[in-house]
Amino acid sequence: MKFTLGAITLFVAGASAFSPASQSNTRTALNTATLDAPTEAKKPVVQLSRFDRLKKNYKGFQKPVQEGDVEDLTFTYDDFAIAVAETSYSFERNSIVKGQCIQYEPKGVIVDIGAKASAFLPEAEAALIQPVGSIVDDLVPLNEELEFQIISEEDENGQLMVSIRRIQYRSAWETILQMQSDDAILEAEVVSVNRGGAICLVEGLRAFLPGSHLAGKMATEELIGEKLPLKFLEVNQENNKLVVSNRKAVVETQMADLSRGDLVEGTVQALKPYGAFIEVGGMSGLLHISQISYDRIEDLEQVLQPGMAVKCMIIDHDKVNGRIALSTKTLEPSPGDMLRDSSKVFDMAEESAEKYHTKMEEERKARESAARDIVLGLGDSLDGLGDEFNGEGGSSTSSDPLADVSDSLDSLLS
Fold first, then answer.
1. Does 303 reside within a domain?
2. Count of helix runs (H) and strand runs (E) in the chain
3. Within 13 Å of residue 283, how many CA atoms lie on the same side as its CB?
4. Is the domain of 284 the same as that of 345?
5. Considering 163, 197, 216, which residue would you say is the last residue of a domain?
6. Residue 105 sits in a domain of what CATH number?
7. In this structure, are residues 328 and 345 in contact, taking their beta carbons and an 8 Å threshold?
8. CA within 20 to 30 Å of 236's CA: 16, 283, 327, 352, which one?
9. pTM, two decimal places
């Protein structure tokens, strides 16, 4: 009986605890406790990146530093500061650095220049001369130390862009300026032709060859790929302008081997009232009307026509200006043959030139002999005069011009 009343009493007490009044009291007590407790500020939650999470979880093996290890070190912090100060890292734009190509890419090459990130060499900057159809693999080797010029600032990944072409471009201009200073003759390949002339590659740079400066050639497609001797006409690095001449180089080369009396072949280029212009190996020579034949010429067009092949003898030359004077009358077997049958003159040109040289040599020797005889004759007459003055040769005449005068005076005084 007591057990039953106790249970009822316990149940009633428990029920009262969950009554609305009790709940209100409980809420009030909790609110009071919350107000009385100190307020704590909420910290923002930092979201780690994937790399930071891996770094946090996998820091790798760290060797503990012992006291003896630090004391045994001979390289101090001061030494480290000095080493850093003496080490220069020049990765500014336009700087020249050394590095190695380590990997080919579809549009360039990855280059290790010692920076915090690998540099990139675009295919267009791989070389100054890039043959048609070549790829970047053919232009630069891997794992060889080369020089590169930095041509950009670092991007968002810290990568720099480098160039080999710009270094070669600058070196090519230095070579060209030196060749111009030396007035050298160079050899270059024709890579294209246009209406005004041809384009040649000189040390990897494009040079313009005017059509008027081609020696005996025309600016046609057949000229592409041919190597020609050239000399500079204009060199302007600021405007990137190169103008060359083939005719000037040919004239200088051939003029060095020409001399008076040489027999040359040429082509009639133009007729003038005073003669004809003959092209001889890229040079323009004048065949004066007085040097065409020993006979008088009334109509020059009846003797020579433009495009006609002729043989001439060089009678004078100007190597500085590249001019030569020519003659055909020295090749005439008989005077007037150029008017009657010019082909006969050209067929016998070698034989006639040899006879002419022999004749000139004989005349030269005759002139020298005559001059020697004159000198010897003058010597004999001078020898006689010397004998009279010296009292030699049996002459009784005294060498003293006053001897006779003194005798006369003595006779007068006596």
1. yes
2. 12, 15
3. 27
4. yes
5. 163
6. 2.40.50.140
7. yes
8. 283
9. 0.52
- Residue 45 — pLDDT band, cuts 50, 70, 90? low
Residue 204 to residues 127, 183, 188, 379: CA-CA distances in angstroms? Answer: 10, 19, 10, 70
Which token pair is 284?
A: 């323009």
Rounded distance, CA 224 to CA 191, Å? Answer: 5
State the amino acid at position 66 in one-letter form: Q
Q: Label residues 152-178 b or e (16+ Cβ within 10 Å = b).
A: eebeeeeebbbbbbbbbbeebeeebee
88: helix, strand or coil? coil
Q: What is the SS3 string spanning 351-388?
A: HHHHHHHHHHHHHHHHHHHHHHHHHHHHHHHHHHHHHH
Q: Which domain holds residue 109?
A: 96-163
Look at residue 128 and tell me if it is in a domain. yes
Kindly tell me the burial class for residue 271, based on how many C-beta atoms sit within 10 Å of its own C-beta (0-12, 13-18, 19 or more): middle
Long-range CB contacts (< 8 A, 24+ apart) of 49-53?
none
Reduced to 3 states, what is the DSSP secondary structure of residue 209?
A: strand
Task: Over range 52-63, report the average pLDDT.
Answer: 62
Structure tokens at 283: 């040079």
Binned at pLDDT 50, 70 and 90, residue 21 comes out as very low
Residues near 313 by Cβ (< 8 Å), separated by ≥ 6? 261, 262, 263, 264, 326, 327, 328, 330, 331, 353, 356
Provide the number of structural domains found in the chain. Answer: 3
Q: What angle do CA 173, 174, 177 make, to 5 degrees?
A: 85
Closest CA to 221 of 187, 194, 243: 194
| Pairwise CA distance, residues 140 & 69, whole Å | 47
